[in-house]
Amino acid sequence: MKQDQTVLRVSGLHKRFADHPVLKGISFEVKSGEVVVIMGASGSGKTTLIRSLNFLEMPDSGSVSVCDIEVECDPSFGGKLDRCPRALRNRMAQIRRSTAMVFQSFNLFPHMTALENVMEGPVSVKGLPRAQAKERALALLERVGLQDRAHAWPRQLSGGQKQRVAIARGLAMEPKVIFFDEPTSALDPELRDEVLCVMKELAEAGMTMLIVTHELRFARDVADRIIFMEGGQVLNDCPAPQFFAETNTDLRTRRFLGKLAV
């Protein structure tokens, strides 16, 4: 995919839980090779947004397009996946196959080794022969520095190692974009750097990434853009240097950054 080609397009996304609106008309685009960090205080809608992009949460209205595969969410579906027409669910499945998600709680299969966790998606979703999937999985575990832990069970891995396996599992699907939902929030400080190091290497390799995080140093060093959310809306969408610049006079942004820096 060409650099500067739009990979992800989000338009007018709305989501509510009961009577509480969580997303209020979110719109933005992400280009190939771009690293976009989503920041905002707790409750601003960041996680709901990123989960809506691959339909772990079903938006109430708006559209999501990945690599020109578009899903238009109609209010008549009531935010329920099972109310969507089959053709629409098929397009959602296509988007899921073009993306990967890394969760804050790892979500590894406990009954599978690290190698088997990485192999599972290509075999069960893409129908890749096991021998080919194993070869790819071993190469990816080596890429994240875990080739010597391929046959370890999740319970035998540290939190940082589990998250690196989760990243390798996502890469095994050959995604066009990877979504990260606070990937270091469940880790002790000494384990965060090993995960962030892998993510930096992915960014340098040109992987398109959308990352929910509070890691200020990482965002400064790696992000191309920052999307700053508050109250379910995008308040600021700008290049990272502009967001972090001392000349940024937006009071809500400065207040947010001040709290994280404490």
Q: What does the model show?
A:
- The protein is an alpha/beta fold and 262 residues long.
- It has two domains: 6-98 and 175-261, P-loop containing nucleotide triphosphate hydrolases (Rossmann fold); 108-174, no CATH class.
- Helix content is 37%, strand content 25%.
- It has helices spanning 46-52, 86-97, 114-124, 130-143, 159-171, 189-204, 216-222, 240-244, 251-261; strands spanning 6-17, 20-31, 35-39, 61-66, 69-73, 99-102, 177-181, 209-212, 225-230, 233-239.
- Strands 6-7-8-3-9-10 form a six-stranded mixed beta sheet, with helices on both faces. It has a four-stranded antiparallel beta sheet with strand order 2-1-4-5, covered by helices on one side.
- The termini are far apart.
